[in-house]
Amino acid sequence: NAGVMQNPRHLVRRRGQEARLRCSPMKGHSHVYWYRQLPEEGLKFMVYLQKENIIDESGMPKERFSAEFPKEGPSILRIQQVVRGDSAAYFCASSPPGQGLGYTFGSGTRLTVV
Amino acid sequence: DQQVKQNSPSLSVQEGRISILNCDYTNSMFDYFLWYKKYPAEGPTFLISISSIKDKNEDGRFTVFLNKSAKHLSLHIVPSQPGDSAVYFCAASVRGGSQGNLIFGKGTKLSVKP
Fold first, then answer.
1. Which residues, in sequence order, are bridge partners of residue A112?
2. How many CB pairs under 8 A join A and B?
3. Least confident range of A12-21, A90-99, A102-111, B59-68
């Protein structure tokens, strides 16, 4: 039973380009969460999705960032027109319905904007 | 404004001794607390949690203590092992343990020396 899979592990983008981060939840998990960790900081919640629905996006920046979790396929975190301040580790987590908050994290995608 | 604070960036402990990691919070609405362990280049791994209706939860070598009046919790690891060397994050939620977002501290790096 594979864990939460994130790809790519490392992503380098030039300023102004788009970044697409993918997250495949564990089998049977229909809830996905995205967190961002800036250097020397803790993880910061971005968005919580269920299949085809955004449940809580209170942590998402209002511009340039979007997330989706389609009926089929992985969850995608999309960052348009990246800036240097977007450089961070982005972690995805998943859980089955009703499990609670001890969800399983992936290994993360480290985004570097040059 | 940091709602979850881990004031010790690092802690060094001898193998076999007790490790005590501390966490303070400011939001009295938090009702569920978790500890995560994180190795370099990996995602956080859930360790142990506690509901605000309890003051102690134990799982093997790991015990979490909650002092609501002081808004303080601690993680005790006994006995400490070299494999416990990692960054430990304290996290809190206002959702009563149901799904939602977590507020993380900045982490404490534990080093267990043989």
1. A12
2. 73
3. A90-99
pLDDT value of residue A63: 95
- pLDDT > 80? residue A101: no
Three-state SS at A103 = coil
Query: Could you tell me the pLDDT band of residue B98, with boundaries at 50, 70 and 90?
Result: low
Query: What average pLDDT does this structure show over A90-105?
Result: 84
Helix or strand or coil: residue B82?
Answer: helix
Nearest CA among B23, B25, B71, B17 for reference residue B48 = B23
Contact at CB, A48 and B45, closer than 8 angstroms? no
Judging contacts by C-beta atoms under 8 Å, the chain B residues touching residue A67 are none
Strand A109-113 versus strand A10-13 pairing type: parallel
Closest CA to A82 of A30, A14, A12: A14
Tell me the one-letter amino acid at B71: K
Rounded CA separation B91/B40 (Å): 19
* Residue pLDDT, tens place only, B69-91: 999 999 999 999 999 999 999 99
For residue B83, what are its two tokens? 């494999």
First to last CA, chain A: 36
Contact B102 A91 (CB under 8 A): no
From chain B, pick out residues whose CB is under 8 angstroms from the CB of A48.
99-101
Q: Distance between CA atoms of A75 and A52, rounded to whole angstroms?
A: 10
Which residues in chain B touch residue A98, judged by CB atoms under 8 angstroms apart? 98-99
